[in-house]
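Anyone up for a design puzzle?
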């Protein structure tokens, strides 16, 4: 069951529901009572410039589900992939990204939209031996949208994959990444941040499965919720039998700024091997009142002091982005969210 299959068949029973353990906090079947008509084609010439366009050596567009199905990556590329949705319809897109041996890809992926659309994007990454991929995702979508992004990542030994997902939520927004880790000194970094206000909902779901020896994974997720918004984090790291000498660490930390806001978190470690170094942590709380008092005593207005503390809290995720230009875009997005 998936949103894509529901859009394709028109069958509401294909929608995931709270009966599915991985979807219990992002119930689509209980939310969607009628599937809208297919989205109309979207003229690319009418679109404004994307948030990463100025940084890219190559640009690709998925507009209301229409665009390239396969992207071949060789050499060194900075690719801006825009996923744009507009209108009140439903659409789905599937993209396969194949990274050649020794290639280096910086993927600047943005989700943009206007209207109460229903959209799913499915991405499949095949990353060859010795290749490096850094994926920066900026999901800044319409308040009334229901949207799902699902990424399947398969690494070869010796490859590197880094990810930073920055999400502003929607009526329902889910950004899911599932990665098969081959060990063999392959390295994985999977980070994310959600900043939610109003009644927006965001679900960051990740799963990393270590299948062989000598693999590393580092994961850091930060979240901030206010008003009546809801943040969800589900992170699972699986160390299969025989995947010895795995080093895997995961942390999720969130701030709740209003009584009616909510955070649901479920970090998991499933370990079936010996000789591993694995840890996970989860904290949910409020702003540090002592730090806030200290800043106000030094003449900083309360609103500005709160913004500075939140920026420092979430900024740890942004600091881990290695592409300088993308890091600047992320900081600008963060400042705009806090300013609002």
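Challenge accepted. My sequence:
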């Amino acid at each position: 069951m998936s949103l894509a299959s529901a859009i394709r068949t028109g069958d509401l029973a294909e929608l995931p529901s709270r009966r599915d353990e991985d979807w219990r906090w992002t119930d689509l079947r209980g939310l969607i009572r009628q599937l809208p008509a297919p989205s109309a084609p979207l003229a690319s010439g009418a679109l404004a410039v994307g948030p990463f366009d100025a940084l890219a050596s190559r640009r690709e567009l998925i507009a209301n589900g229409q665009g390239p199905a396969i992207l071949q990556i060789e050499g060194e590329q900075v690719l801006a992939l825009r996923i744009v949705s507009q209108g009140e319809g439903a659409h789905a897109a599937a993209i396969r990204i194949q990274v050649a041996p020794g290639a280096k890809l910086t993927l600047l992926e943005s989700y943009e939209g206007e209207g109460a659309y229903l959209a799913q994007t499915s991405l499949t990454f095949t990353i060859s031996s010795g290749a490096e991929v850094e994926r920066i995702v900026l999901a800044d979508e319409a308040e009334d949208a229901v949207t799902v992004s699902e990424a399947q990542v398969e690494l070869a030994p010796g490859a590197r994959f880094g990810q930073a997902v920055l999400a502003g939520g929607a009526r329902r927004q889910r950004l899911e990444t599932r990665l098969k880790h081959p060990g063999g000194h392959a390295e994985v970094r999977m980070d994310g941040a959600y900043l939610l206000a109003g009644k927006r909902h965001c679900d960051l779901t990740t799963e990393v499965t270590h299948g062989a020896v000598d693999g590393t994974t580092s994961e850091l997720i930060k979240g901030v919720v206010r008003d009546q918004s809801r943040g969800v984090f589900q992170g699972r790291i699986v160390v299969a039998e025989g995947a010895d000498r795995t080093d895997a660490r995961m942390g999720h930390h969130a701030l709740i700024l209003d009584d009616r806001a909510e955070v649901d978190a479920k970090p998991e470690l499933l370990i079936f091997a010996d000789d591993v170094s694995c840890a996970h942590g989860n904290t949910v709380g409020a702003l540090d009142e002592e730090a806030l008092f200290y800043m106000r005593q030094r003449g900083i207005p309360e609103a500005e002091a709160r913004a500075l503390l939140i920026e420092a809290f979430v900024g740890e995720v942004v600091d881990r982005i290695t592409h300088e230009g993308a890091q600047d875009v992320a900081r600008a997005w963060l400042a705009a969210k806090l300013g609002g």
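A detail worth pointing out: The mean pLDDT is 94.
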